[in-house]
Amino acid sequence: MKTAVILCAGHGMRFWPYNEVRHKAATPVMNRPNVRRLAESLQQAGIERLIVVVGAFEASVRAALHGMSLPIAFIRQNPPSGTANAVLSALPLIGEEPFLVAYGDIVTPPETLQRLIARHQDTGVLATVVAQPYLPEHDPRDWVGAYVREGRLRRVEGHSADTNARLGGLFAFQPHIRDALNAHPGLMTSVPVGGMPPLEAELAQTLQTLLEQGHDIPVVEPAEFLVDMDKPWHIWEANARWLDYEASLLETDRIGKEVHIDDSAEIHGKLVVEDGATIGKRVVVHGNCFIGREARIVNGAILQGRTAIGARTRVSDYCLVGDDTVIGNGCIVGHDAEISGVMLDGSFLFHYCEIMGVVGQKVDIGAATVCGTLRFDDGDTLHTVRGRRERPEFGANGTYFGDFSRTGVNVITMPGVKIGTYSCVGAGIVVYEDIPSRKLVLLKQELIFRDWGPERYGW
Description:
Elements: E1 3-8, E2 28-29, E3 32-33, H1 34-44, E4 49-54, H2 58-65, E5 72-76, H3 83-90, E6 99-103, E7 106-107, H4 110-123, E8 127-133, E9 144-149, E10 152-158, E11 165-173, H5 178-182, H6 203-212, E12 219-220, E13 227-228, H7 233-249, E14 254-255, E15 260-261, E16 266-268, E17 271-273, E18 278-279, E19 284-286, E20 289-291, E21 296-297, E22 302-303, E23 307-309, E24 314-315, E25 320-321, E26 325-327, E27 332-335, E28 338-343, E29 348-351, E30 354-359, E31 364-365, E32 370-371, E33 383-385, E34 388-390, E35 399-401, E36 406-407, E37 412-413, E38 418-419, E39 424-425, E40 430-431, E41 440-441
């Protein structure tokens, strides 16, 4: 199998507030765009050329894949009309050979792709899929589901409680899949009664059609983990899972050129330190850590566990970086700031902040901005995604700061709120609900003036 098709055309509306300046497939996972990681994993699995279907924010996908060593052909799907049509548009470039299809927002180790390719080649069937069994905390209604038995796909149904796994966004096909794709009805008809599918050619419906025609469809389970970056909290989950995966592979330190590690630093774990980076005086590192080129971890910074620090980032002055935290390139985490979660490139936490969640690109967090992280009922926050309420199984109580947003001093965010892209939250505001994109929110206060002076004290 030499060719893979990566689908990166949709608008990703459920990904708000991170869907307004880039395609979600170009979102960084451990400081590399996910579509780039996916392409590299495909290359590692033996894929020799890529066909990438682009649409919304295609420039971000092209930029993420720039400079790769294998040939890439781009196909524009505008407007996006569904994953089945996206695959169909790529078929003229594939020819008469088996091929792989990957959704560009899927995050999983390379071993998952290798399993899929090996299983498909062994069986020679028309279609092979990756499906992930539901964990107890998963709600099947959040996903396009599958019913799997004895390693075979038995039924595909959209957002149904009557499924035991979800499709993993990775497929292997024989070229004559084109007949089933051409016969697509234009919407997902395999839904619960009253399920209200959108008018979109979903690839999952093609799989159900094949099942109804009697085709055997083997199922491969993912290796280690699989995250579909569909909602904003999936950025946090994907980064944490990938960081854990990379950290588990570390057996020895890997130290680059011109690296300085001060003798007073306490290191309790393996290090990957790229060229020109510094670990300075009184720094404490607990856990395996990845430090980018020319990054500076200095003056008593504390890294509590497995962490990744991007290139040219400064982490300093007794700040606290939580376990499973990824900080992007060119960021600042300054005096007594605390961060647990993900920071994208170029964001600043200058001092006295307590942040938990996802901080978008080039976000300016004002001094003493604090994220509420625990509800009085000790429960998880319900989120509203495009009008539907759901409770995330990961990161429900984090705050989600959209790209290029900012906060004033002493802002407090309640658990689970989202702040839109290009929005500003004024000083002293307590944020109880999501703030739309492109809004300036200011606190209106009433002032009371009374006469006062020495006479009030008996003079």
